[in-house]
């Protein structure tokens, strides 16, 4: 009997990996190659926990990698302690609710490159990005007739992550790749260069959308909104508005959660574990997310009737100094998170209009969006250019709360609107002792120093906004 070079241990490991990424077709395809052998033929043991390139070189394997990239994308965004939470902790969306030093230094803006939470989040982002990149090549080779939106969605994953990282990290971001199964180390790049790379990937995805099915429209809209977000980061407001033209306000690209896959990360760490508390006027400059009574960010106070009805009985954070504020945007483990939505397209248009000097149209755009939510009264003109910018960025903050957008917005206020960082980021006395630091970006983790292209012991070119 012919003996195949796969151990039973390896088969089980491969089955776990493929099942985890949701491709039962790929699992069946690989399982079909595992044939029982006679007792006299020992099974050859090979790497049990790694799917080798040969294992996915088929139509089913290519689709498994594509599905796996989406699963990793979920983990890297709303399915774990990602930059959605950590970035909001660094800004003014969340305040530290526990005694973990690594979270405290993020909240206090005194981040060390050894920070383990940021290292884990960084790895999750790179895994999703690289999986999407590999899926593009495999899909083109083994499933060339697949619907265009499927490969376009992989470009969306790449563009979204590259933009998200450039919004958060210092100049010196490193984006390595994998070529023929081997690492190809990247070199430090500026945030601007990373935005340009993200823009190129968004353009590549859009070029593949040629049909008008529901899936095509969904991925096209996600790419358009991401492209607009990138262009805003590049200070190209008019181009950003053109990029999102035609995206419906009702559009949503949701990350789904369930008990059997990934729980909603915000629900897990705020509502259940109390590691985070919704911020309320943090450090002088922070917005009053917790007490604004804004229906876009519903909040309860730990122990009150509403919180108890949502399963939260704890009343304070671990230091007992402040109430525990609990978000109810996502009140359940299964609550989906819209990581890209049509409302962002309207916000991009409103900012472009304000940037062009058309304050009246910008205000009307904001109010049209507000009219879609019960309980939101129309805004009135803020009266001055500076106040209008404040008003618009407050709208952004409440519409996009908890979705990894706040750091990018604060950094743009410094870069594009010439605000002093001390008027934008939390400052003064930190709630657990000492003062806020001066960090305005997140450093590249120390683990990246394994990359031979990084000079010396520094992971950042600079830490400027």
Could you characterize what this model shows?
The protein is mainly alpha-helical and about 475 residues long. Among the domains are: about 10-55, no CATH class; about 60-235 and about 435-450, Alpha Horseshoe (Serine Threonine Protein Phosphatase 5, Tetratricopeptide repeat), CATH 1.25.40.390. Helices cover about 45% and strands about 5% of the residues. The protein contains 16 helices and 8 strands. The chain has helices at about 10-20, 25-30, 60-75, 85-90, 100-105, 115-140, 150-170, 190-205, 215-235, 235-245, 265-270, 305-310, 340-355, 360-370, 385-400, 405-415; strands at about 95, 175-180, 180-185, 250-255, 275-280, 300, 325, 335-340. The strands form 4 sheets. The chain has a two-stranded antiparallel sheet. The protein has a two-stranded antiparallel sheet with strand order 2-3. A two-stranded antiparallel ribbon has the order 4-8. A hairpin with a 2-residue loop joins strand 2 (about 175-180) and strand 3 (about 180-185). Helix 1 (about 10-20) runs antiparallel to helix 2 and helix 3 packs antiparallel against helix 6 (about 115-140). The chain is globular and about 55 Å long. The model is unreliable at about 1-35 (pLDDT under 50).
